[in-house]
Design a protein that fits this description.
The structure is a homoheptamer of 93-residue chains. The first copy, chain A, is 0% helix and 38% strand. The first copy, chain A, has 93 residues and is mainly beta. Chain A has a single domain, classed as 10 Kd Chaperonin, Protein Cpn10, Chain O (Roll). The first copy, chain A, has a 6-stranded antiparallel beta sheet with strand order 5-6-2-3-4-7, with no helix packed on it. The first copy, chain A, is globular and about 50 Å long. The relative contact order of chain A is 0.31. Chains in contact: A-B, A-F, B-C, C-D, D-E, E-G, F-G.
């Protein structure tokens, strides 16, 4: 389970923990690290308060989908996380 | 028929299931996969609530036309879908 | 005559049927297909409802002029049409 | 004199008939067609109604100056005209 | 003195007569035409009425400073002038 | 500890003192200067008053995360600092 | 001391006299002209009235910091000055 973050995103930013990339292909073949596709699915770890008159819709614990190149990679407490604007989030699963 | 999605698009996003590409040309010749044109027609699987004061116009089940390079490809429950902003949708058929 | 379309453009989009390109030059010489200039004149087949507080000005049946590279080519009921924003339309003839 | 156009420009568009390029230099030398500078002066043939709360300032018959690469070339009733936004017009002479 | 122009700039445009480029360097050496720096100082010949709720600040006769590549060159009554938006004017001397 | 700055940022600017880059890798190997990654973590030294109706959220002493290429490097009282807009700050730790 | 300018910046422009570049390095070595870094610190010589509802914050005499490539170089009364928008000013020292 994703550890609750002690980091507070500013404004409409959201911190997302990307889901672990699948280690095996559908046929059961183990794929090397570089061939793994970056996941586009993750769990919201922390969400900012939103912008003026526009509160953020997602909340901690939501599983979300996001664009392939969305967000900035940051490392907090040893975890590789992404911080992105809520507008980079496409949908809640 | 398109399976109802359990994914909720954020704001003005819409999830569209592209129509299957035509397997045969008008003359009945079977065309290989790479030569098929990406369809620009699909079915709305899920639509977000819209933006502030601007509800989304399309609804689940609508057949829509969209631009050739619109949307981000996502895979949900094994289906290849597109998620796009409603402004990328050109018309309802 | 242009067939009435069963497609409803979204927001401020307009569907235009381009006028047939002239088959002969002024001197009566038949020009091959690739040398024909794309027409910039067409007939409105369908117009969207417009944007909030900004209804669309053109209406079905209007002959309009538009920029050379305006619009997206779509095929509806076997007709090659263009779908564009009303702001791409320059004038009503 | 410029013939009154039967074309109605949309919104803030203006149709301008470019002034004929000078056939002779100041010294009386006749210059070939390709060496003639595109004129930046023309006569307003038709003006649109303007945008919401912003009527168009120029009117049919005005001689106007415009930027070198302004407008789209269109042919109406055999005349080579330019259609441009009023914001491309620099001044009324 | 700058001749009063019969040209009326539209909206927030201003017509400026560039100051003559200095013919001599500080040391009295006459410099050839191509080595002269384009002046960034000129006299306002005519100013438009401004935009909605934003009248133009400069007035005819003001000496103004403007950016090196500001404005469009136009020729009116044999004078080489510049027409620019008031926002291209940096200061009144 | 970060010395209080005598510099007042304008509007929504924030002055940040970047955290010192780690001198050793996790395995204890000392890394040369050029191989050190620019930190993305720092301490707020001074924050501007914000923009009209939008006060700045961060305050002096906050530890913040920011994007890799955010801000302009400035030197104040011998310290290498960054000055950035508050919108470049991703989160408060 | 900076001479009071007789130039009035328009709108939100500010005229800044860059601080003289340091002639010696910390170790006392005299550096040639081309190796001197452009200063990012200067004194406000004149400030415009600001934009509608947004008066300018800096005032004549303020020492300010600005971005490396901010502003346009102008020469007034033999002084090399910079004219920039107030938004290019980062902080008041």
């Amino acid at each position: 389970m994703a550890k609750k973050s002690t980091v507070t995103p500013l404004h409409d930013r959201v911190i997302v923990k990307p889901a672990a990339a699948e280690e095996k292909t559908a046929g059961g073949i183990i794929i090397p690290d570089t061939a793994k596709e970056k996941p586009q699915r993750g769990t919201v770890i922390a969400a900012g308060p939103g912008k003026k008159d526009e509160p953020v819709t997602v909340k901690t614990g939501d599983t979300v989908l996001y664009g392939k190149y969305s967000g900035t990679e940051i490392q907090i407490d040893g975890q590789d996380l992404l911080i992105m604007r809520e507008s980079d989030i496409l949908a809640i699963v």
